[in-house]
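Query form — protein Aromatic ring-hydroxylating dioxygenase subunit alpha

QUESTION: What is the three-dimensional structure of this chain?
INPUT:
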Amino acid sequence: MKREDFWYIVAESHELAKNQVISRSLMGEWLAIFRNDEGKISALQDKCLHRTAQISRGKVVEGKLQCPYHGWTYDTDGKVVHIPSMGPTFKPGNKCSKSYEVLEQEDYIYVRLSSENPEVKPFPMPCHKKPGYTTIRLQHSFKNNVTNCAENFVDIPHTTFVHPKIFRDAKHEKFGALIERANGSVKVTYKNEKKNFGWFSWFLNPNGDEIGHTDEFFAPNVTTVNYYFGGKNHFIITSQSVPVNEEETLVYTDLTYNYGIWTWLSRPLVRWQAKVIIGQDVEILDNQMKTIKKYGAHFQNSPADLIHTWIESIQAEIQEGRDPKLLPRKEAEIEFWV
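ANSWER: The structure tokens for Aromatic ring-hydroxylating dioxygenase subunit alpha are given below.
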């Protein structure tokens, strides 16, 4: 199993209208993604077979993608169906662009670069369009890799330093956590978490209700953070980190929550708060990658970093072409201070 076997988001559905083409980069591969007049989506290598112009700079004509250079035209399967210079008697042959599997799910467009391991499916976004819930979608570009982004998204200790006051305050409280690695994922169940969400506590947990909190990582690029407050209010942060290349990651974040009558009224505030917090993460992760480029990624860990090391163990398996689901199941308890 390799990274190319997995599905990655390349756009939100609303970003690609009928008879429109967009360009994307996934793991260094350039993609021309277009939707025909019937709504079918295709993902082709963004290179004309003729003189290698980027076909994503062309246009969709009658449901087919036309190169901006000499007008070579591709159907949704990538087959060359028209060469203007050959006149009206042109008959399509076997010329065909490289194409990739593409699908839509939960208002996202997914592409994968390999057709091996067909059992691999896109990650289902939790509670998407579930009655009572709303979802706010955000996109952010990080100058860092997928693993470092994913580790950040399920890392509590950094929050008091990168997001002081706005998300957590340093109160020197002891946290306990049960960590499980199984089936290509890491799950963390926190204990003893108290009312410490910075000034945002007034919204997330104004009454200081009992908190249920789990963080999960799913190979190779998805994290979910689940909060339950008092058994009634539910807040989920799901991040899909898409490897644009080895040094850039585009992160699609779904903030999905159910807060009763406040669910819809709070959308502007929740969006603003999330953009501020993620913007702070963008800055610190950009700096981390600058340092990695200069000195290398020679990380040293404390016992509190077990979550990171288990995520890295899963990524290492994929890097070696092995199935991370075959890693032995592990379970451990840790303590750390925030």
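ADDITIONAL NOTE: The first strand starts at residue 8 and ends at 12.
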